[in-house]
Each structure stands twice: as C-alpha cells, then as structure tokens.
Amino acid sequence: MAWLFERVAVVGVGLIGGSLALAARRAGLISHVTGVGRSEANLATARARGIIDRATRDVEAIGPVDLVVLAVPVETTAIVARALVPRLAPGTVVTDVGSVKGVIVEALEALLPPTCPFVGTHPIAGSERSGAAAAEVDLFQDACCVITPTPRTDAAALERVEALWRGVGARVRRMAPADHDRALAWTSHLVHALAYTLAGAINAEDPSRFALAGPSLREATRVAASLPELWRDIFLANRTAVNEAITTFSSQLERLRAAIAAGDGDAIARLLEAGRAGRRRLESER
Known about the structure:
single chain, eight-stranded mixed sheet
C-alpha cells in the first residue's frame, strides 16, 4: 500500500495531535505512529485507543520517520524542534499545529536543515478538553486548516501536508503567517480572552450568580475551561495583534456602554443590529 506518510511521530498526543493520528489512520494515509509525551498515563490512553503504536517520553528516541507533527504548546515548539534536529533523517517532513504562526515559522525555518522541510499549519478545530482521551476521529471534518507557506517552503512537502489535511476532511486555505496571526487574533484569541475575562469577572463579583446561568453564558464562557498555560503562551506569542484586537473591541464595547448610560435607544439599536449582521455573516460562512 502506498502511504502518504508511512511512519509518523506525533509529539504531543493530545486533542489535536491525537485526533490527526486517528483520522489519518482511518483514511489510510499513515501506517505507524510513534507518540511522544511527558505523561505515561496519557501515552497509555493513546495506545489503548489505537492512536499510537509506540510510546516514548524522549523526543530524541523517535527513530526514523517520514513526518513529525509538533502538537505542543506554542512556546515549546522551537525547543522541541531544536532537540529533534540531530535525529532527523534527510527527507523527514516537519509540521506543526500551533495557533500562532509567525514566531513558529520563523524559528523552525531557521532551525531545520534544508533536507528536512517545514510546513506550518493551523487546524481551526478543537474544544476545551485536552489529552488523548479527548481525541476525536471526526474533529477536522469540514474544519478550516490554514497552511502558512513562505518562499522557503519546499513545494513537494507542501503538497503532501496539504493532502494529509484534505484526507482527514479539512478545508485547506493558504495564508502568509502574519496574515494568519492578525486574523486569528480576532476570530480565536480575542474570543478566548473575552471568555476568560467574563467568567472571571462574574466569579469575582458574586459566584452565586452562576446558579442563574443560561445557555448564553455557558456558551460564551465554554472555552474558558481550556488550559490557562496554553492560552497564556498564545497571547504572548501573538501579543501585538491580540493587543490591537482587544483595544478595538474595547472601544466598541465602550460605545455600547455609553449609549446605555445615556438612554440612547437608537444608538443601542444600531450597535446591536451591527452585531446581528456580523452573526448572520458568520453563519453564511459555514
């Protein structure tokens, strides 16, 4: 059988890395998966679920592979890649799944030798859950996966990585790393900042009010259940774009606050209608 990538190493067998391995196995795109992680219990779960064939806690012990998937926190990606470099055979393709691309692409293109091409990716899918137990075989079905090539990206490696994501059901879109980071600051990073802040503010003001929470609050704060250290690293890695998004959003929220304080019903209606129009646009993108 002609595999797209016969032997794969997934460094970080969590929601994204584990789901990719599961989906690629089902699609017949990969054969053997080595899982690398810090937790013996998580690796045991990954083996029990058939996500990986072999487990190791030592990134330097992955052995010869055709593809390395770096599914670790943003701030750890370059550190792991540096440890891998001496162990990579010529022709090994390296990719990542980080939700910030600029710093990762720049770092890995500088670290990896020309014989080991790097292709940056970001599957826009997931949940607030983590670990191998959270992996879902259909996680990427109809999800958007952004690929961030640069002039240095190897064309053949780019095509193979895109084929991998299409093979697991994702809709692939190419973007420059900087364009990706500016867009995701609004569509993902700001959303998480708002969810954490809203849940934290209510908890600090009067936690008993959560007893009156309906579906709107639960949905609005759902992603605040995500690991804080993961999002701390994302905010820092994309801090310029995230700061711009928060500043612009804050000015919009201030306009609504001022209109409410002034009892200006017309202004309130205009602001709410603008939001409703944005929601309709979002729904049309599905």
